[in-house]
Design brief:
Distance between the termini: 13 Å
CATH architecture of the largest domain: 2-Layer Sandwich
Protein name: RNase H type-1 domain-containing protein
CATH topology of the largest domain: Nucleotidyltransferase, domain 5
Radius of gyration: 22 Å
CATH superfamily of the largest domain: Ribonuclease H-like superfamily/Ribonuclease H
InterPro entries: RNaseH-like_sf, RNaseH_domain, RNaseH_sf
GO molecular function: nucleic acid binding; RNA-DNA hybrid ribonuclease activity
Pfam families: RNase_H
Number of domains: 2
Largest sheet: 5 strands, mixed
Strand order of the largest sheet: 6-5-4-7-8
């Protein structure tokens, strides 16, 4: 294995010298720092671990915690039905202070813990209900934002009433709109929204003093401090980070 690692570093070194446009006497470690590229032997180690995990079912350990392939988001986009591939539209037109029922959602990561916050308002400041949901620590803020919208839609249930869900996460809204994002959370949320067309999504700018948005942000932070995990979501496999020893 040592010889293979050395050979991979030698192969990579040829390209790194050309990329960095430096002297051949510069060390491989310095070239990797200059170019910002990961050592090729570590990349190979990571791919072996991922192959063993996803193709052979061999569990891995990350930060002293064991994970199986079932813990990761492995949606096969080829399994999607044609009508499940459409995107969900959103706007920036609704007034976050309007006199209609509205829901504000947010996600937060605090001290390594992740939470989703949802607040439903009537008129401008009357709180109808709110939810504070802690996710497993492996979840990202992106996932927490998406779960917050999902929980809001599920809480409302089938209704003919006009409801606007406000989110300050453009990345989640754009993922819902795109037909290229096939993560389990986004796909599930798309399906729910497709059968609830009366529920509209609206982007709202963060940190500009909007009351409902601030409440949702506070709820998300509160959720992240809870002792018990309420919902366990799967880990996006492209974001799998493995340290090679």
């Amino acid at each position: 294995m040592v010889k293979i690692s050395q050979k991979l570093i030698q192969i990579q070194r040829v390209a790194l010298v050309q990329i960095a446009k430096t002297y051949k006497t510069v060390s491989s470690e310095a070239l990797q720092v200059l170019t910002g590229l990961v050592p090729l032997d570590l990349v190979a180690d990571k791919e072996v671990i991922k192959f063993n995990l996803f193709n052979r079912g061999i569990p891995i350990n990350i930060k002293d915690k064991e994970y199986s392939f079932q813990d990761f988001d492995l949606v096969n986009k080829l399994d999607l039905l044609p009508w499940e591939k459409g995107g969900i539209s959103w706007s920036m037109d609704s007034d976050p202070n309007g006199r209609f029922k509205k829901i504000f959602t947010d996600g937060s990561k605090l001290n390594g813990r992740v939470g989703s916050g949802i607040v439903c308002l009537r008129e401008a400041r009357d709180i109808i209900w709110k939810l504070e949901i802690r996710l497993n620590d492996e979840a990202s803020v992106f996932i927490a934002e998406a779960v917050a919208i999902q929980m809001a839609v599920e809480k409302v249930g089938p209704t003919k009433e006009k409801i606007v869900i406000f989110s300050d996460s453009k990345s989640v809204l754009m993922a819902l709109e795109s037909n290229k994002n096939h993560s389990e959370v986004i796909m599930k949320l798309r399906k729910i929204l497709l059968v609830n067309p009366q529920i509209k999504l609206n982007w709202v700018s963060a940190h500009i003093g909007i009351y409902g948005n601030e409440l949702a942000g506070l709820s998300a932070k509160n959720a992240a401090t809870k002792e018990e995990v309420d919902i366990k979501v799967k880990i996006p496999s492209p974001g799998l980070k493995i340290s090679s020893s």
